[in-house]
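Support request, please re-run this one:
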Amino acid sequence: MAGATEVSRNGLLQIAQREAFVPVAYPDGWHDPKTKKLPKYSGGFGDNRFKRGQTVTFKDAIAGFKAAVRERAMIVTRRVKVDLSQQQLDAIVSLYYQGGSHKLDPMAALLNANCFTTAGLLFLDDAMATNAAGEYRPGLKKRRELEHKIFTEGDYGDIGWVWKYSGDPSLGVRERYDVKEDDL
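Re-run finished. Output below.
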């Protein structure tokens, strides 16, 4: 594969900004959305392997985030059999980071059929802006629109900063943090 294989710094910044840093485990959906019996917890930068009560430092969350993005990029490049530009890989890894395989599968199928224009438009489909329970979320729609701009135009928007929460994000206490060169 001659195309991009690793997410760029701009791609990392874009994903981190959409995920935000949360230092404590917070309820983030359900392991089984149908029964809603087993809550799922997230922390750091959208890491859903957290356990209730777990905390993380910014530095450790960044390290875990970078490893998770690297792992997802490897999966994307295995599933997509055609060369991707840097901006295309960055956008697709962002989609996969948040949406999982059920968002990656239709994208990979289109790309492997060399339907790049249709794949770009898939970001704008309302079905791509749903959570694990299949519920449409306006925030995910906005994220998909941003990913579409990255995929089609290489426009990452206003990056270089992330939201940093001081605790549970449902309390809404956050601050803008300008990412330093040595953070990533």
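The first helix runs from residue 9 to 19. The radius of gyration is 16 Å.
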